[in-house]
Amino acid sequence: MDQIATGEFDVQLTPIGAADAVVGSMAISKTFRGDLSGSSTGQMLAVRTSVNGSAGYVAMERVSGTLAGKSGTFALQHSGTMDKGTPTLSVTVVPDSATDDLVGLTGSMAIKIEGGKHFYTFQYTLPR
Q: How many domains are contained in the chain?
């Protein structure tokens, strides 16, 4: 049965490599609060285009924390595009990436930014 976890997170992006690279690379560091409590680290690749508001990114991150009273780690895979300001984003749990109490975790995460703050809604399933 699907469950929903909601909360807020802080994110820090640190450039890796040359600032003028065709494909930009960033280290990701997040702290999650709410129904998912923990932290993550990862890496993002991104491309900006000459058209204002158009870009794309992919990222992988490893989350370590507590969800529904269960602790462990899992990986998230991101794929996002901006088409002249219209965003499309997919963030999903990498199959079979969860450890410890979270083994078998599946799901997807929606991210919303309001007033400079980041919020998540995580729709997930954990085996009994």
A: 1
Give me the percent of the chain exceeding a pLDDT of 70: 99
Range(s) of the domain holding residue 65:
3-125
Q: What dihedral angle (degrees, nearest 10) is formed by the CA atoms of 93, 6, 124, 12?
A: 10
8: tokens are: 């807020």
CATH of the domain at 64: 2.40.350.10
Beta carbons of 27 and 17 less than 8 angstroms apart: no
> Residue 1 has what pLDDT?
67
Longest dimension (CA), the chain: 49
Q: pLDDT tens digits, residue range 24-52?
A: 999 999 999 999 999 999 999 999 899 99
Q: What's this model's pTM, rounded to 2 decimal places?
A: 0.93
Residue type, 114: E
Distances (CA, A) of 1 to 22, 124, 125: 43, 8, 6
- Alpha carbon distance 106, 89 (integer Å): 17
